[in-house]
Amino acid sequence: MSARREAMVGAAGQVSLDREVVLANVSRRRFLQGMSALGGFVLAAGFASPLRAADPPKYGADGMPNGWVDDPLVFVAIAEDGTVSIVCHRSEMGQGVRTGMPMIVAEELEADWKRVRVVQAPGDEKRFGNQDTDGSRSTRHFLDPMRRCGAAARTMLETAAAARWGVPVSEVEARNHEVVHRPTGRRAGYGSLAKAAASQPVPGRDTVRLKDPSRFRYIGKGQLKLVDGRDIVTGKAQYGIDTRLEGMLYAVVARPPVYRGKMVSYDAAETLRVPGVVRVVVIEGSAPPAEFNPLGGVAVVASNTWAAIQGRNALKITWDDGPNASYDSAAFKATMEEAARKPGKVVRNEGDFDAAAKGAARRLEAEYYVPHLAHATMEPPAATVRIAQGKCEVWGCFQSPQAARDRVAKRLGLSADNVTVHVTLLGGGFGRKSKPDFAVEAAVISKAMDGKPVKVTWTRDDDLHNSYYHTVSVEHLEAGVDAQGKPVAWLHRSVAPTIFSTFVEGAKEEAALELGMGVINVPFAIPNIRIENPEATAHTRIGWFRSVSNIPHAFAVQSFVGELAAAASRDPKDFLLEVIGPARVVSPSELSDTWNHGESPVRYPVDTGRLRRVVETAAREAGWGRTLPKGRGLGIAAHYSFVSYVAAVVEVAVDDQGALTIPRVDVAVDCGACVNPERVRAQIQGACVMGVGIATVGEITYKAGRVEQNNFDSYEVTRMAGAPREIRVHIIPGDFGKPLGGVGEPGVPPIPPAICNAIFAATGKRIRRLPIRDQLKA
Amino acid sequence: MTPVTINGKRYSVDLPEDTPLLWTLRDYVGLTGTKFGCGMALCGACTVHVDGQPVRSCITPIAAVADKKVVTIEGIGGDKVGQAVQGAWVDLGVPQCGYCQAGQIMSATALLKRTAKPTDAEIDEAMTGNICRCGTYVSIRAAIKQAAARQGAAL
Questions:
Q1: CATH architecture for segment(s) B76-154
Q2: Would you say the ipTM is above 0.95?
Q3: Measured between CB atoms, does B78 come within 8 Å of chain A?
Q4: Residue A724: its chain B contacts at CB < 8 A?
Q5: Is the pTM of this model over 0.80?
Q6: SS3 for A190?
C-alpha cells in the first residue's frame, strides 16, 4: 500500500509524454471483466463471450475486454508543487481525447486546468480498462468512470484537509486546486495536501459525490485549447513514425502483393550493395485467418529510411500469388450483383414483403455500389521495437495498444508482462491502426537484429497495397408503394464480404455488428420489411474503416428513400420524415438488431423522435426549400449510428461540364450531451469531408489480385478545393443525466447519400455507384 | 559532404547526394516535425522553405539545397508571419490528428508572405497540394484569414 501512495505523490515529477507514468497498480475491489484480452471491437462485440446462460449480458464499457477502471490512484498523481498529472488511457488520433478525457477528471477533481499535465498510458488494460480506441466509444464509455475517478480524488483531498484542520469533512470544499474550510476561509493547495490525500482510503464508488452539471467549468464549455496544439504547430509532437532511439535501425518491408500470397524466393545481392543497407530479414507469414498478423515478406534494414527504401527497390522477389491471384474488382462487382438478385439469408422479416409488393400500386428497385476504401492515414503505420534482457519495448501509433502488446508477446514467445507498449500520437487512425500487424513486424526484425531498436515505416504504397480495407458492397433495394407513393413493402439485400473473414476462416455472412449498422435496424414506418444477406467471399483483408458498414448501408437506404420521394413527386425532406414515421421509441430487438452498437437496448433504444429532430434541424438551418440558381440543389439524408443521430443537408453546384462543387453543408447531430462541443464540431466537420471523399473520389480497385492504386495520385482523397466551403454543425442540446452517443464516426454515413440526393435535385441524375468521379460529365 | 543551413544552423550532411531532404531532416539531423506522407510530392506533409520558397522535401535531393537556407516547422516560429500562422492554428484549434499540419503551416506561411490578404481562390490554389485526411480544411481557411487579419493589423 505504501508504494502506491508514494507513487501518487511522486510520479508527477517524473512523467513526460514519452515515458509511462510510474504508478503502482492496486488491487481492485471491483470485479474486472474476466474476458481474455481479445482486443479489437470485432472480437469483443461479435463473439459470444464465455458467459454462462444465467449471466446477464454486459453492455457498454462493461461488455468490452477488461471493462473500465475508475481508480484515482491509477489515473491521477499530484506532485507537491501542485501539478496534477492525469493519465489518458485512450489513443489520440485527432478526436481530441487527450484533451477531453483528462478534462473530465479535472472537472470533478476541481483542478485548475493550467496546472494539469496529461500522461499517455501504455498498453495495459488490466490497469486502465479497455483501450481499444474505436467504435466512437471513448467519451460515451468513460465519462462516468472518469467523473467518479476525479470525484474520488477530490474527496480524498477534502478528507485530508478536514483531518489536518480537525474539522468535519462536511465543512470543507475543493475549489479550483485548493480545499477551503467554509466557516473560517482557511485554504490548502492541492500540492500541500497531496501526500496526506494519498493515505486516505479511496472512497466507495457509491459514496462518491459527483458535481451537478450546472456547476461544470470545463465539461460542455468547449473553451479549453487542445493539450497537444502547441506541440503540433511547432513540430514537437511525437507520432509513431517519429520515434528515435540510440543506435536505431530503419526498416521497410516488401510484402506479398496479393492477399495470402507467399514468397517463393528472393535475391538481395543488389539490395546489399545499396549504401546504408545493413541486412535483409525474412518475415514469415502466418496461416489464415489474417487476424493482426504480419503478411510476411522481406524486410530491408538500413541506417536510414531512404536507404531502406532504395534497398527494397533493388530486391528481386518471386511470389506465389496464392488463392486470390485472380481477384478483380469489376468481375467481383458482377458476382455480388448476381448474389444480390437472388434470395439470401433472411435476417429480418416483418409482415409479408412478397404479398405486399404484389399488391402495391407500383414497384421500384435500385442497386447501389460502394467500392473498397483504404484509410490512408496521413501518418502511415509505423512502429519501433527494442528487445533487451528478455524485455521488449514497443513505440507506435496504436489504436489498440493492448492488442499490440499481446501480439508482440505471442510472436516473440514472451509473457505480455515483459512487453511494454508506448502509445505515441496517431497521425490519423480511422480503424487502420486498430490492427497492430506493423508492431509485430518491427518485433520480428528487432529480434533478428539481436534486439537492436528497429523502426518499421510503411510507405504510402505499402499502406494502400496491404491495408485492412473497407469492404466492397452491392446493396439491392426493392419497394412496393401505394397509390400516393408511400412505401408499404421494403426489401434490402446487402451483399458485402464481412470483417469476420479476417478473423474466422471462410466467414461469408455479415455479422450482427455489420447488419446492425443501418441495414437491419432501419426504424421506418413500413409494415412489410424483409432484409436479406446473401453470402460474399472476401479476397482481401477486410477491416473496419471510420463508420464501417454504415457507409454502404446509409448510402443505399437514404438514396433509395430519395428515389421513392422523387417517384412520388414529394418533397424529399417531408417524405423522409413520413418514412421514419411518428416519434416513437423502438427496441433494437423489434428491428432484429441483437448488437445495438454494443449498448443496452434499454438505455439505448432507437428514438425516431430524435431522428426526426435532426432531420428537421438540418433542414431548417439549411434553409430547406430556398430557391437556388440553375445547377444547384439541396439533398438530405439522415442516419442513426454509434447510438447517435445525424442528418445532413448538402448544397451542391454542378456546372455545364459536370464539375461538382459543394458550397455548403449543414449537419445536425444529436449525440446526447457534449463533453467538448468544440471537438464535436471538429469531428463532424472532418467526418463530412471524409464523406465527401467517399462520395466523390475514393476507390480501391484490384486487378490480378493486386491493388491498382499506389499513392495519392491514383487513390484520391478530398483536398481543400474539393471540400465544402462551409460546414455548419448544429448540435442538439443534451442532458448529462442521459446516455451519451458516439461522435467520431456517425458524421460520415449521411454525407454520401445527401450529396447524391442533392445532385439529383440539381441535375436529375441519380448516382448509384460510388465514387461519383466523372459520372456527371456529359 | 553537403553543406546546408537548417533553421539558421549549419550542417555538413554525409549522405548520398540523392538522399531526399525529408529523410535527411528526419533521420540524420533529427528534426522529425517535417512529415512523410507520400514520397512523391502529392500530399504536402513534408513542405519546408528553401530560401523562402515552399518545397516538397520528399522529392528534393540534398544536393539541391547545398548552401541554401532551409526552414522547417521547428524554425518557422522565428518568422513573424510563421508565428502568426502558428498562433492562429492554436487559437482556432485547427489540428485534429495534427500530422499534416506542419506542411499546412509551411504552405500557409509561404502564401501569406507573398500575398498578405489572399482570396478564397488564392487560398485554394496555395493549399490544395496539402492533404488533410482529418478534413480540417474549413478551419485551415479560417486560420489563414485570421493570421492575415492579425498580420495586417500589426503592420
A1: Orthogonal Bundle (1.10)
A2: yes
A3: no
A4: 138
A5: yes
A6: helix
